[in-house]
Amino acid sequence: MNAGPALVSILRQGSCLIASIHTALDDSQMVRFQQDLIAQIGQHRSRGVIIDVAALDVLDSFGSKTLRNIAEMARLRGATAVIVGTQPDVAFAMAELGMGTGSVPTALDFEEGLAYLARAEDGRSAASPEPSTGRNWG
Question: 8-123, superfamily in CATH?
């Protein structure tokens, strides 16, 4: 039996995951996508996540909230998430309805999303303390 085309895909490229949503998802599919993506962040020790929504011509309030939750969960697991590819009509409708992405960064397309993650990683590296050489507290 043919299961049909994939609704989403999650691919690994280096320390990043690229998650593409290929069609509108119902609430249960969106929750499954969230669970799968967060699990893969831990499995691959990902530092960045690009969520590509270019194929979506509509994004409801649950979907918008779930994307914000994914970004927060990714942050709590040590990864930076960026949403890319929001269609102009979707962006307009989200703004009109007050359904923004909150503090989740967005980028025009995949290339800009990669550039954002590279800058975030550079900033994280610059802010990291030098490795500890250990101290004798005795």
Answer: STAS domain (3.30.750.24)
Burial of 67 (0-12, 13-18, 19+ CB in 10 A): buried
Mean pLDDT per 10-residue interval, the chain, length 138 residues? 78 95 95 97 96 93 93 95 95 85 89 94 66 41
SS (H, E, C) 27-96: HHHHHHHHHHHHHHHHHHCCCEEEEECCCCCCCCHHHHHHHHHHHHHHHHCCCEEEEECCCHHHHHHHHH
Residue carrying structure tokens 């593409």? 20
What's the rounded Cα separation, in Å, for the pair 37 and 39?
A: 5
DSSP assignment letter at 131: P
